[in-house]
């Protein structure tokens, strides 16, 4: 079922201020169904309706009907926005589109710097010419945790706190591998496993948007 609310620490936003831009990725959930569908906001008549493109329109059409209740979530500048709406119509030709009623109220959940989305994404970190293959265990808009393995007696294979590094990762949903500058803020060793916490540095717009989109998707699916 679609959740009735988002979480604690929720604020409300004036209905005229959606905090959303054309081309913004959306996660759309229909009342009575557990799955969420990816969408993109392609237009709006402020105060009246929204126009969204949604993947797999035919499968949605079979399951839902006109005036179905929906919940829409999206991430913008570190804030998760969400609102309840009604589906006005589905248009399949010539371009598959969904019309939604304009929300009366928008709720927000601020993502604090230390809020994390759990994940398991293969990645590589390079420090001082040394390459470490491992995985990202969790990620936020500000940084991530990376784990790799080495021999228990090898102290030289441990990354040190306070150094800079470069992360290479292909974030799920993206088409290519990204590189991100990191600042290592903590390192923890447990036998052959080393986990390091890091902060993102000098994110370019494309990579930042890719990370935002991934966090949005994971937040919606786990909500």
Reconstruct the topology from this structure.
Elements: E1 10-13, E2 25-30, E3 36-45, E4 49-54, H1 57-63, E5 69-76, E6 79-91, E7 97-101, E8 106-110, E9 117-127, E10 130-139, E11 143-149, E12 164-169, E13 178-190, E14 193-201, H2 205-222
Antiparallel strand pairs: 1-8, 2-3, 2-5, 3-4, 4-7, 5-6, 6-7, 6-8, 9-10, 9-12, 10-11, 11-14, 12-13, 13-14
What are the low-pLDDT stretches, counting only 5+ consecutive residues below 50?
1-16
- Which strand order does the major sheet show? 2-3-4-7-6-5
Whole-Å distance between the termini?
A: 11 Å
Number of strands: 14
What share of residues are in beta strands? over 45%
What share of the residues lie within helices? 10-25%
Q: What best-fitting shape do the alpha-carbon axes yield?
A: elongated
Radius of gyration: 20 Å
Category by helix and strand content: mainly beta
Question: What does the largest sheet look like?
Answer: 6 strands, antiparallel, barrel
**Element order: H for helix, E for strand:** EEEEHEEEEEEEEEEH
Averaged pLDDT, please? Answer: 78
The DSSP helix count reads 2
């Amino acid at each position: 079922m679609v959740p009735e609310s988002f979480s604690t620490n929720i604020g409300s936003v004036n209905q005229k201020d959606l905090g959303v831009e054309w081309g913004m990725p959306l996660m759309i959930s229909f009342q009575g169904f557990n799955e969420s569908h990816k969408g993109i906001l392609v237009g709006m008549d402020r105060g009246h309706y929204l126009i969204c493109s949604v993947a797999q329109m035919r499968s949605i059409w079979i399951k839902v009907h006109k005036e179905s209740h929906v919940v829409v979530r999206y991430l913008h500048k570190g804030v998760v926005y969400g609102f309840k709406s009604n589906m006005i119509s589905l248009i399949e030709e010539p371009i598959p589109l969904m019309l939604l009623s304009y929300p009366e109220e928008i709720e927000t959940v601020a993502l604090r710097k230390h809020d994390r989305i759990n994940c398991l994404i293969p990645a590589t970190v390079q420090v001082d010419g040394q390459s470490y293959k491992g995985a990202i265990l969790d990620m936020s808009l500000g940084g991530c945790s990376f784990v790799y393995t080495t021999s228990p007696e090898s102290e030289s294979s441990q990354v040190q706190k306070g150094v800079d590094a470069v992360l290479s990762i292909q974030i799920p949903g993206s088409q290519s591998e990204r590189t991100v500058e990191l600042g290592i803020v903590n390192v923890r060793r447990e036998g052959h496993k080393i986990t390091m916490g890091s902060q993102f540095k000098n994110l370019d717009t494309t990579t930042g948007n890719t990370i935002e989109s991934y966090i949005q998707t994971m937040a919606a699916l786990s909500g």
